[in-house]
Amino acid sequence: MMAQALRTPAVQAPVAAGARRRHFTPARIGIYVFLLGAALFFLLPLYVMIVTSLKGMDEIRAGAILALPVDWTLEPWRQAWSTVCTGASCEGIRGGFWNSVKITLPSTILPILIGAINGYALSFWRPRGANLLFGVLLAGAFIPVQVMIYPLVRLLAGAGIFGSLPAIVLVHLVFGMPVMTLLFRNYYASLPQELFHAARIDGGGFWRIFLHVVLPLSTPIVIVAAIMQVTGVWNDYILGLVFAGRDNLPMTVQLNNVINTTTGTRLYNVNMAATILTALVPLALYFFSGRWFVRGIAAGAVKG
Amino acid sequence: MANVHLRKLSITLGGKPIIRELDLQVEPGEFLVLLGPSGCGKSTLLHSIAGLIDATAGSIEIGGQDMTLADPSERGIGMVFQSYALYPTMTVKDNMSFGLKMAGTPKAEIARRVGRAAEMLQLDALLSRKPAQLSGGQRQRVAIGRALVREAGVFLFDEPLSNLDAKLRAELRRELKLLHARLGSTMIYVTHDQVEAMTLASRIVVMQGGEVQQIGTPAEVYERPANRFVAGFLGAPAMNFIDGEVDLHNRFGAGSLALALQEAMPTGAATLGVRPEHVHIDAHGPLHGSVTLVEPMGNHQVLWLDCGGHLLSAIVHGPAQYRAGQALRFGIDAARVSLFDPVGGGRL
Amino acid sequence: MLARPIRAATPAVMPYAALLPMALTVIVAYLGTMLWTLRTSFTASRTFPSDKFIGITQYTRLFDNERWMLSLHNLAVYGLLFILACLVIGFLLAVFIDQNVSGEGVLRTVFLYPYAMSFVATGLVWQWLLTPGTGIDGSIAALGFPDFVFDWIVDQDLAIYTVVIATVWQSAGLVMALMLAGLRGIDADIWKAARLDGIPAWRVYVSIILPMLWPTVATVFLLLATSVVKLYDAVVAMTQGGPGTASEVPAKFIMDHLFLRSNIGLASAGAIMLLVPVVALLAPYAYARSRRARSGA
């Protein structure tokens, strides 16, 4: 019965011409029930996050995690933003917000730029050995970061920049390069090669063609790459924890500090407010970018 | 070998009416071609006969039984798709037998049917290959084979040759004609290619905008088109159309071009339709013109003539050479012309 | 007369120069660090790297370490459940959404938004949801099951399963998005042919569609498997590896020993071991892809 409803409207016994087929079969209802049930499961944490962050602690201690707030309050949000203790200081999570911004901006622009240049060189110029290099680069994207972390720490310490903004940006560049290069390389491979040939006949060199022909055509993939990189960098924890240095800890690290290392009473409402604040940027980006986000996933997942 | 009878069939898709109250009788054993430009509804009509699209109103009868609401697999039909739609991960043999297996057909029967279809379509050597390992023409044969094993009363073809190159198309066209002669099954075939229609059909249904323009044998639709659309759609190069008038003496005139008509025609404005092969270059012909373009086609030439501002194409056989700008005389075979109403395009 | 003979195509230097950052990254940041870690795993390094080579002693110590063995066990259990749940749920979601349902756009947005959240945020929210007493079990108890308690997160044996729940919630949407793209790429005529053949819909999915989607499934599996190996943030946020070390995972073991317990040699051995499943996954995948590329499929 279920099988029939999938992709096939259920069959009625042949009747006089003019009778209509029923479309609301039990199986079709079953599909909607499943999807709505799944939707509820997926929305539950978001709902609980928001609702908890708007309650007072008395209400929370009383239980009923799913209930709407009786006395709405924005106090937890104020506390999360300006007064909670994130390890050393108690200035709220806003410091982490600005740190994340400081980290994310260069860590998006630089990898996109390098990724574009790499993709361009790989798909149009194809120097010898480049594809092998690219293959190893891609393989590197699968290697767990723990294999590379300590030597990188030593390298950056040796260069005198460990624990600073340049360090974390460099690290994000190193780990973001495979996906960025893949995105741009696949995109450029889908552009007609004749564009490139025509430009070379017109006398263009490597950088000329890149700046005047290829880059102007890159808007869609730049948008996709930016969305993916901003999301990835903002949501990063482990690299920020190790490389950013105490003054530049990103929001995710501070969030974890707030929630998991506090002594004394746990302020669940403040915790949830802080969590929402941390998740806000990528979530907003997701909700506003819609199709582009999905494009990014599909493009990144299709390996070469 | 079943008949198909459509009564007042209407199909509306996405709020737009595609087919309006269509009546059509397909005789058992005939090769009916649905011919028309893209968007004329021929494919939609075929899909509704197959049961893949629901009819909004009207009835579909196949083999004497009302199949309007029946599942595609229960209608006693086989179908060949434009993109072949072979199951890519199965061998040719499995492609042809999968449907039968699902229906619970005994193994011996499946083997018999597959063997027969493979022999008819020369697929024996390909049975254990997968679609990716076949050429376009071979894939199309497998698609036909998959429809054949259903031993259906009616076979439906949805532009099956469109994805092939010209040479292969001509080859498979002939094979299809031979197949029909051998099987004698009812076949309904959709195409936009009038050459396919002319060569394969026992009858052609010319469609435009969801409506039937004319139903007839290839000869009928070609020589006595029911309206201007049909006249212009069949035949290459297309029929020449000249706007003019019929006078009281049953003569057609359009400036310097005049022709005495053979059939009695109403006086007034009319559009003359004459096929290029009925325009004869003749040193003693009554009409004057000058050559604007010559298109050599190998076994014939197409001449484009200017006659007092009217542009006419003419087909010429034989070795005579013509040059652009050359003045010559020609005649029109009045027995083979058609006249159309300038408003509405119907045949007069 | 030619003004100047056209120069023979000397290899342009610029493309190589432009690829220098990529080359440096691969050679220094990827290969170089891996070799360094490999080397260190054979030494007696503790707080600082040492040059004293001790063969495979670190590896034997590793496999004598209870915490490490537990982390491996946890990873295996977690990995199996996570991948299975994501594949099944993601595939079902994709199939059901593909049935011409109304509100498809909204549904897709709902299923995929968790992927935009960080592991940390995910772990923290689910930690709160699954807190015994004040979490979800409280609400279920209020519905009429007063003794209902969901205390997996503080249970030694069950804590790792809570991590499964949280991360499946986060990643199933991704699987759905990729599977949906794969489903949508299938020729519509295949469906028509199957309908004509009278094949029931579930059979079409099993015998025709899924085999056709094999490359997509393989890619999804690879993505999921690598994220299993890298599991760290979610555990740190959700259970801190606890209670005690009950939900320890290899990545966390390594990080703790690198930075907290000052045992670089042991941690390096652990890191190299973590490479084993990754190589085991990548090698056949890369081989299969190069074979397909060569056969022109």
Describe this structure in words.
The complex is a heterotrimer of chains A (304), B (348) and C (297). Chain A has a domain at 96-252: MetI-like (MetI-like fold), CATH 1.10.3720.10. Chain A is built from 15 helices and no strands. Chain A has helices spanning 2-5, 26-53, 57-61, 75-82, 94-125, 130-142, 146-158, 165-189, 193-201, 206-214, 219-234, 238-243, 251-260, 268-289, 291-301. The radius of gyration of chain A is 26 Å and the shape is globular. The two termini of chain A are 41 Å apart. The longest helix of chain B has 18 residues, at 166-183. Chain B has eight helices and 20 strands. In chain B, the strands form four sheets. Chain B has a six-stranded mixed β-sheet, with helices on both faces. Chain B has a five-stranded antiparallel β-sheet with strand order 13-12-11-14-20. In chain B, α2 (92-102) packs across α3 and α2 runs parallel beside α4 (136-148). Chain C has 297 residues and is mostly helical. Classes of the chains: A mainly alpha (304), B alpha+beta (348), C mainly alpha (297).
What key attributes describe this structure?
heterotrimer, A: 304 residues, mainly alpha, MetI-like fold, 15 helices, globular, disordered N terminus, C: 297 residues, 14 helices
Instruction: Please bin the fraction of helical residues of chain B.
Output: 10-25%
Q: What would the average pLDDT of chain C be, to the nearest integer?
A: 87
Structural class of chain C: mainly alpha
Largest chain-chain contact? Answer: A-C, 100 and 104 residues
Taking Cα atoms only, what radius of gyration of chain B do you get, to the nearest Å?
24 Å
* Total count of strands of chain C: 0
